[in-house]
Design goal:
The complex is a heterodimer of chains A (about 120) and B (about 110). Chain A has about 120 residues and is an all-beta fold. Chain A is built from no helices and eleven strands. Classes of the chains: A mainly beta (about 120), B mainly beta (about 110).
Chain lengths: ~120, ~110
Amino acid sequence: GAVVSQHPSWVICKSGTSVKIECRSLDFQATTMFWYRQFPKQSLMLMATSNEGSKATYEQGVEKDKFLINHASLTLSTLTVTSAHPEDSSFYICSARDNRGSQETQYFGPGTRLLVL
Amino acid sequence: LAKTTQPISMDSYEGQEVNITCSHNNIATNDYITWYQQFPSQGPRFIIQGYKTKVTNEVASLFIPADRKSSTLSLPRVSLSDTAVYYCLVGAGANNLFFGTGTRLTVIP
């Protein structure tokens, strides 16, 4: 399968600061990447779809000005949590769509644990 | 937007075959069915993907009936390390992958 990486794997920050999370497709190009958020004991919730070279598409209820997404290249998407607050503490997971085969397949990164104090 | 329904949890003894069924009554013509495994504090790991009939790889089999309104993930001879949450997702192209509740599989020694 394809490999997707995330950096950092965990981050602790003070309330009011901004945090940037990187998502990279290591062995394939991805025109479309996705950002999910997962709270303890819950399923993954899709936050936004990141499209290379264009604006991200946000799911209902997700503040685009708070969760800034940039997909500047075919292998990198970034999620910036601006002015983070304790309620933003969560596990953030990205995925990238692999179109190389006959079927589209989504591969996920290892996740980034964010703790806002 | 295809919604999926799975059992919340399942228990199995080591060495047994485990079958997890997922319902997706509103699956679209272009949608694929994909199963993922997730361990705590890790991203979901791709297990298997299919469109119809049967697909098999080195870790699992996926059975899809002709109407495609359900699918069954089959794990042969599970071990303790297979204890995880298993998600069934449907989607393709413009249909993004939305996660349901998943099935928490517990393998018992």
